[in-house]
Write a structure and sequence with these properties.
By secondary structure, the protein is of the alpha/beta class. The chain is built from 5 helices and 10 strands; from the N terminus they run αββββββααβαβββα. α4 links the parallel β7 and β8. It starts with a helix and ends in a 7-residue tail after the last helix.
Length: 188
Amino acid sequence: GNPKRYEEETMKMTLIAITNGHIFDTAKGDWIHDGVILADDGIITAAGQKKAVAIPPQAQIIDVVGGFVVPGLIDCHNHLGIDEDEVRQLSEPDDITMWRSLRNARYQLQDGVTTFRDCGAKHGIDIHLRELISKGQAYGPRLLCSGPWITTTHGHCAYPQMLVVDGVDEVRKAVRQVIRMGADLVKL
């Protein structure tokens, strides 16, 4: 669909009912056919067969017309700021990297990814994006971020935009630095 229209519509939603879908029930490992999901301010409050779930009259209805509704997907290792030539893109200005990260975060969410682990972004851009998303100022999945990855001189992906270290003391210092930046995880 149209991303701008999608964003405008979802901005207005507080109470929604997703109807006429096939819903995957993770607890039972089976499908609920002709299902309904109720969500209030982004939190699922009820799910089940249409005949068993009362839809409040003020709910905005989203009819998925026999579509399949599955739990949010999790991308465990990726980079929102890199989507082609890693060396070239890491050398671009930070505002270009942030723009690409914003765009890719929105695409991930639209594709059904609701949790995304960003395993390396220069200058903590992923951490800044996580804060924008958590404040509702940008669209994207829940982010778990590492900030810049840590590597050794001549090690894997030893780019100057990342933390290139050698020896135990430098590794400790780099780990403390990414934790201070707000990292959820450390990528070595």
